[in-house]
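EI: anyone free to look at a 362-residue chain?
SC: sure, send it
EI:
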Amino acid sequence: MKRLLKKCYRVFLRVLVAVCRRLPLRRRVLFFSIRAEGKLLENARCVYDALDAKKTVFAHKHPIPSKYRPYAYFLLLTHKVIVTDDYLPYLREVELRPAQRVFQIWHAGGGFKKMGFDVFPEPDTIHAQYDDVIVTAEDCRKFFVTAFRLPIDKIHAYGLPRTDKLLDAAWLQKTREDFFARHPELRDKTLYLYCPTFREAGKKRVRFDPQLDFDRIDRELTDSEALLLHMHPTVDYTFVEKPYAHVFDLTKEEDTLTLQCVSDLLVTDYSSVIVEGSVLGMPMLFYCPDFDTYERGFYLTYPDDLPGEMFTDGTQFVARMRGAIENRSIEREKEYRRAQTSACDGHATERVVKVIEDWLRG
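SC: here you go
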């Protein structure tokens, strides 16, 4: 019976696709995201807010429940422009109509850790049908040619829309004021921000052990310091299971951009948050206890091309954070900014919106 139902469902989807392809193509923009449930994250939200056009949002965290597939097919085949900020799984199943356009405003636009077909090279169409892809600097375009198997003329150094506000002094000031109004206990402290990324074993996500003794870290930090933790949006666990005096997991309370704006140091590993850190001019530190076993490769020379030092010993965590602020790698920060984030100039959203508006008029 289950096999019969599955076969009937596949037939239903084929009929649905055929019908949708004959429906009028609407001059609307579909924002399709798998990065959060029921909402757009920063990059897509910036474009959505700035775009004066008819818009639809389809946002369901991956893996998307199969019950949404018919509606997703309908939306994909009836909107003239599709905007996505991560891979769009249904594009390998549905061939779009000739007049449609897909804008990939990739959430990690720099040439950092390898991605796409450079990680999983088997034949697939997971990154198919893109008409435009954004990156953060001219030097990064070549990496996306192989990552997405696209010609370089489809890859443009427009910058990341979510970085525009980081160059707005008024927005920065208000963001900081609002944050400390919500968290007065953190005012006038040196704030260290730790943002680790997810981990994989093969193609499967696995829980990451940071090899950190948070009891020890809490003891070593003074009353004029605090460690802020923000987990990757696709993980569902935390490293701290009890309250501390100097360690705060703010994953559920604050977004990464806000925390970067108020922090004095960014500590990460292989995360694209270094793009925002670079635009903000933050000192950065890279804690990588699993560097020797980390599965993904890199487009840059890791750790030589990083805008900060790398270390692997968790017992040095507090000392290395203090040292990273006191002895900044200014020249390394400048070189990283030039090579990796030079297109993030405060006007990325304008450039993306113009392309979309031109497509809608075409």
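EI: The longest helix spans residues 2-20.
SC: 👍
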